[in-house]
Amino acid sequence: MTKILTIVARIEAQEGKTELVKTEMLKLLEPTRKEVGCIQYDLHQDNENPNVFVFHEQWESEEYLQAHLDTPHIINYVKAVDGSIASFVLNRMTKL
């Protein structure tokens, strides 16, 4: 049985950059959900601190995640938010 790779990515926008970061992350949803190997790709915004976002993702394998990280939409996102991210933490997880 293949184990699904779960990703929890926490992104915190710098003060004054929240809308830019949010807009750029929203652009990732549609193309990523169409990628081969993507099971789930959801974006959340913290109710108390709007600078904090979390992606909850599920991928069929690490290889599919790596392919995702090399897509043009991810590369464009990284360029668009350069200098606008206060912190980024990505956790690779396995459901128990």
Can you describe this structure?
By secondary structure, this protein is an alpha+beta fold. It has a single domain, classed as 2-Layer Sandwich (Alpha-Beta Plaits). The chain is built from 3 helices and 4 strands. Strands 2-3-1-4 form a 4-stranded antiparallel β-sheet. The mean pLDDT is 96. Keywords: Lipoprotein.
User: In the CATH classification, which architecture applies?
Assistant: 2-Layer Sandwich
Query: What is the domain tally?
Result: 1
**Tell me, what is the CATH class?**
Alpha Beta
Helix-strand string: EHEEHHE
Integer-rounded radius of gyration: 13 Å
The overall pLDDT average reads: 96
From the helix content, strand content and strand pairing, which structural class follows?
alpha+beta
Strand order of the largest sheet: 2-3-1-4
Overall outline = globular
What low-confidence regions span 5 or more consecutive residues with pLDDT below 50?
Answer: none
Q: How much helix is in the residues? A: 25-40%
* Main β sheet profile: 4 strands, antiparallel
**CATH third-level topology:** Alpha-Beta Plaits
Task: Please supply descriptive tags for the structure shown above.
about 100 residues, alpha+beta, Alpha-Beta Plaits, 4 strands, about 35% helix
Describe the SSE topology.
Layout: E1 5-13, H1 18-33, E2 38-45, E3 52-59, H2 62-69, H3 72-80, E4 85-94
Antiparallel strand pairs: 1-3, 1-4, 2-3
